[in-house]
Amino acid sequence: MANSVITIRVMPTSPEVDLEQLKVKVKEAIVNYAGEGETKDEIVPVAFGLQALKIIFVVDEARGGTDDLEKEIAEIEGVNSIEVIDVRRALG
């Protein structure tokens, strides 16, 4: 089986949410879902001072869909929404 490279965007409930703390919690959920692996994160501006958290991570595609991960992240305090914005197959 190959790996999948998944990119998610997490929108906070307000500009006052500490994205660094939120990033730690979201990454914990990702480790629970995908196991220890490579991740890349960045904080990206959205509009009017609002920023979003964008995280890229690798998971074995045999793991299946991301529905369980999305539900877990959506329940984290300070998260308004989560969206899978890209899925790619990584071979090699």
Provide the domain count: 1
Give the percentage of residues in beta strands.
over 45%
Helix-strand category: alpha+beta
Helix-strand sequence: EHEEHE
Shape descriptor reads elongated
Largest sheet: 4 strands, antiparallel
Strand runs, count: 4
Put simply, the count of helices is 2
| CATH-scheme architecture | 2-Layer Sandwich
Structure description:
This protein has a single domain (3-90), classed as 2-Layer Sandwich (Alpha-Beta Plaits), CATH 3.30.70.60. The model has no long low-confidence stretch (mean pLDDT 93). The protein has a four-stranded antiparallel β-sheet with strand order 2-3-1-4, with helices on one face. With 92 residues, the protein is α+β, with helices and mostly antiparallel strands. The protein is elongated and about 40 Å long. The chain has helices at 19-34, 67-74; strands at residues 3-12, 39-47, 50-60, 79-90. Strand 2 and strand 3 form a beta hairpin.
